[in-house]
Amino acid sequence: MLVDSHAHIDVKEFDMDREFVINECQILIVNAGVDFQSNLHTLELAKKYKNIIPAIGFHPEFVKDKVNEIDKCLELTRYGKIISEVGLDYFWIKDEDLRKKQIEVLEKFLQIAEKENKPVIIHIRGGMKDFLEIINSYRIRFVIHSFEGSVKIANKVIEYGGLISIPPIIVRDKVRQKVAKEIPLDFILTETDSPFMGPEKMSRNKPCNVKIVVKQISLLKRIEEIEIEEKIYKNFVSLFTSSLTTS
Ligand SMILES: [Zn+2]
Questions:
Q1: CA nearest to 76, candidates 58, 62, 56
Q2: Which of 17, 62, 164, 222 is 20 to 30 A from 102, alpha carbon to alpha carbon?
Q3: pTM here?
Q4: How far is ligand 1, taken at its centre, from the CA of residue 11, in Å?
Q5: Does the annotation list 6 as a binding residue?
């Protein structure tokens, strides 16, 4: 079974053919809400399609203009199986106060994740140092979605108990290829971040494109595609089942 550990199938880009895209291949799709409306839409989709796993969150970019939705999103987490999309985005948000707000919001979601024993799928652009300091004080299973750092930082994430998730953009990104080659398969997940991060620039990405990621990892690691697919599925399942070691 293929796994897309991070997608946004609720967005308007899929209004024309959502059902087809969801059923196009045998796949589990984690749909991540980014604000109140998309969290609601995510829950609706999960009700309708068995292969959609609902993730509830609040995108860090929205600390700018959707702060009034934060509490409502926190409340919706009880209906999701995963917490996402949450994290830190220092790439788009440069203002110090807004970055502090991102940390404050992230911690609120992490507290819920720890209490309810839910995995968290994290968006990080530029805030890795702060993030690792924060996550160190929680006992949570976490994944860095669309990881964009070096092998060294990937190993740091693994040391802190996290997994690294890789999108189809890997076919045109040498840094991600190096990471996928170097880190052990035990710590890798696949995703698409659909409709973003496609294998070709400006193309609409879709969940079944995780096949492209599996193929690329297979080439880099010289392991059969089917073995990669099965191992990634196991890694995903273990997010919900594995016992946590104290950090
Ligand atoms: Zn996303």
A1: 56
A2: 164
A3: 0.95
A4: 11
A5: yes
**Do the beta carbons of residue 58 and residue 42 sit within 8 Å?**
no
105 Cα: distance to centroid of ligand 1 (angstroms): 17
Between the CA of 103 and the centroid of ligand 1 the distance, in Å, is 18
What is the domain extent for residue 91? 3-244
Burial class (CB in 10 A: 0-12, 13-18, 19+), 155: middle
pLDDT-above-70 percentage for the chain: 98
CA–CA dist 76, 74 (Å, integer): 5
Phi-psi map region of 53: left, alpha, beta (phi>0 left; psi -120 to 50 alpha): beta
pLDDT of residue 160: 95
Task: Name the helix (H) or strand (E) containing 157.
Answer: helix 151-159
Looking at the structure of the chain, the number of domains it has is 1
84 C-alpha vs ligand 1 centroid, how far in Å? Answer: 8
Q: How confident is the model over 56-103, as pLDDT tens digits?
A: 999 999 999 999 999 999 999 999 999 999 999 999 999 999 999 999
Give the integer Cα–Cα distance in Å for 17 and 10: 11
pLDDT digits (tens, 9 = 90+) for 42-57: 999 999 999 999 999 9
244 CA distance to ligand 1 centroid (A)?
A: 26
**193 annotated among ligand-binding-site residues:** yes
- The enclosing domain of 227 has a CATH number of 3.20.20.140
The pLDDT value recorded for residue 165 is: 98
Q: How close is the Cα of 146 to the center of ligand 1, in Å?
A: 8
Expressed in angstroms and rounded, the spacing between residue 241 Cα and the centre of ligand 1 is: 24
Ligand 1 centre to CA of 188 (Å) is: 17
